[in-house]
Each structure stands twice: as C-alpha cells, then as structure tokens.
Amino acid sequence: MSPEAEAASDAPGRRWSPTLDQLIGATFALLGARLGARPIGDNSAFTHWRTGIDMVSNGLIPAIPRSDPYTFTARHHAWTVQSWLASFVVGWVDRLGGHNAVIAFAALTMGALAWFVATLARTGRSQTTALAAGAALAVGIPFWTPRPLLVGLLCLAGTIWIVRTRRAPWLLVPLVWVWANSHGSFALGAAWIGATCVGAWIDRRVDKANGEAPWRYLGAFVAGLAVAAINPLGPRLLTFAVTALTKGEVFREVIEWQPVNFQRADGVVCLVGLVVAFTVLTRRRMPWRVILPVIGFVVMGLYAQRNMAPLGIVLAPVLGDALRSDAPAPTRAEVAGVNRAFAGVLAAAAAVFIVAGTTGPPIAVADYPVASVRWIERNHRFDKPHRVATRDTVGNYL
Asked: What stretch of H or E contains 300?
C-alpha cells in the first residue's frame, strides 16, 4: 500500500478498514482454526490430556506424576513429564469447560499459529504474501496435531520474530521458560539462532557483507534456559530432551519419527509446499544468515516428518524475503467496504468453527476399540482394578 493510501486509510473520521495483507493473515488463521476444531483422535494427545486432568486435582499446584501412572509393565518407573506446563493448562481448560472447551482451545491455538506464520511471511504485497504464507503452511500444517508441540511451534515463531524484528533480547527469557516447560523442541530455537549467527559470520568473511550477527539473542536464549531450570521438576527437565535422543531404536517404530510418505495426502500437500518454496528460493540469491538455518531444518525434516512442522515456520520469513520487491506497491483501490465485509465473513466463519468444536463430539473414536470397551463396561469388568492388554496406539483412550 502506498503512503498516500496508508494516510487516507488512517485519516480522521474514516472507518477502519483491514488491509489485504491483514485479510490474508486472517484467512490463514481461519484455516488453522478449522483444522484445530476437529475432534481429537491422536493417542499421544490423549496422554497429555489425561495427564493434565490428573495434574489439576490439586488445584493451582500441579500434581505432576513422577512415575508412570498408566502402564502396569512400567509401574513406578521414573517418568519425566516434559510437557507439564502445556498439560496443566489443558487440564484446567477441561476442568473449566469440559472436553469441548479443549477442542475450542486447540482451534484458537492453531488459528494463532497460522496467523503468526502468515505474519512472518509478509512481503508488502498481498499476492506474494499469500504465496509465501501458503507455501510455508503447506509444508508444515499437515503435521500439526493438538499436542504440546503447538506451544513449541508458537515459541519458535516468536523467537524468529523477536530476532528478525530486532526486539529486546530479554523477551526471549520468558519465552524460553514457557517453551522449555511445555515441549522438548526448545533446542530448535537455539539451533535456529546459532545457524543464523554462523551464517552471518560466513557472509562477512565470504561476501564482506555488513550486518550484525545476533549473538546477543543467542546469549539471551541461553539465559532463558538457565531460568527455565527453575521449575517443579528441576534441571532434569532440560536434560530429558537429550536423554530421549538416546532412544533411537524406539523412535524408529513411531510413524512421526519416520520420513514423510509423499504418497499419502498429507505428504502430497507437504511436497507441493516444498516445490513452491524451493522454486521461489532459487530465483533470488539469499545471504547465508538466511539460508543456512533453512538447510539445517530441511535435513531434519527429511529425517523425520514431525520436523516438517518447524521447517514450515522457518521457511515463512525466508520466502517473504525472497518475494519482497523494492519497487513501490501500487496504490490500493478504494475497496474499504469490500474488505470490511470480507473481514465480517471471516469472523462469522471462525465463530461457526469454534461453536461446532464446542458442541460436536470432542473425540474421534474410529480407530479405537469402542465395542470392546463397551462390552467390558456392560459386564462390569472395570468395577475392580484389572490389568488390560492393549495395543500401544490405544494410548489413554481407556
């Protein structure tokens, strides 16, 4: 939008009208909200959900389990609830609003994350913003699930935004505390900042490029990790992520830790996003401080499909840079009324999605032994404690 149009839109007496860039962000936010408003059928999400319900039994003091409370084969074995904060919040949402409130919470969280990605991908022109945000979301959104990973993705987006917009480094300290206490992906933030610093160093050595490496932000991130050690579980919460990496033989059997299957629908969507993204990136020479983090996250994404979700977030601002033009944007046509009407439609659709999530069935049971559980209940086999043998994918459905 030109300066004249910007000034006109802000003139006294004129009604507020959203810009096309804002409407594009809202459209993608609506897409994310629609994805989050679906019934939850993810067995891992059930575990986090059930743990949160148990944790709020003590009120505002989280009753964090220290040993495995679910499986008799691992009864009393030490158990670290890496995502205690996210589970605690979900537990309170469930306690205050029931199961459907958890669906509404997931819808709001995914909507906010999609909006954040679209914001990172802004180019100054609505068409290219839509392309950059659409490609970035196509790479990652097929792998979004209503788990604590969503908090990690929001924190990754927040980290990138703080560094790229040169906000105060201290903002990373509370962000890292929330991240480390919600999900083990906090190491990705340090990896992104570190790769950016190394890339900036290469730019100065090879291309004699100016530009300060964000070492201050890396220091602030490390300080955030030190503060994050102050939590109900202590410093072992931070080291648990490293311990989990030693369980490679177990992860190989878990689908989300396997490479993307590009013959499935979600894999096809991801592949389209990758093709568009790399087509855009090859059109313009990018500095190492921008491209080096992308290379690292691409390698991680090809190793395990769960890493495609953070890759999409890392790609968003890079695609925005690649599609940004130095030429002045054309003057915006006077379509304020149309924009306001479009914003109203988006708001109404968002309300419909959230209401649907809070009134429909909160749990998707198609993949679970519903008939078997009903038989056990009818025959009163759950009246006394029993050991029940199930597939691991049943999770906490029981």
From this structure: helix 288-303
Smallest CA-to-CA distance from 130 within 120, 122, 140, 138 is with: 122
Picking from 142, 158, 155, 147, the residue whose alpha carbon sits closest to that of residue 269 is 142
> What local confidence, expressed as pLDDT, does residue 292 receive?
95
For 366, residues 6+ apart whose C-beta sits below 8 A from its C-beta are: 41
Contact (CB, 8 A) for 63 and 57: yes
Read off the tokens for 311. 């890759």
**pLDDT band at 8, cuts 50/70/90?**
very low
What's the one-letter identity of residue 25?
Answer: G
Q: What angle do CA 354, 355, 357 make, to 5 degrees?
A: 65
Find the radius of gyration of the CA atoms of the chain.
23
Structural domain boundaries in the chain: 19-347, 366-398
Q: Residue 375 and residue 130: Cα distance in Å, rounded?
A: 51
List the one residue out of 207, 212, 152 whose CA is nearest residue 179: 152
Task: For the beta carbon of residue 285, count every other beta carbon within 10 angstroms.
Answer: 9
Residue 208: what are its φ and ψ, rounded to 5°?
Answer: 55, 30
d(CA 206, CA 202): 6
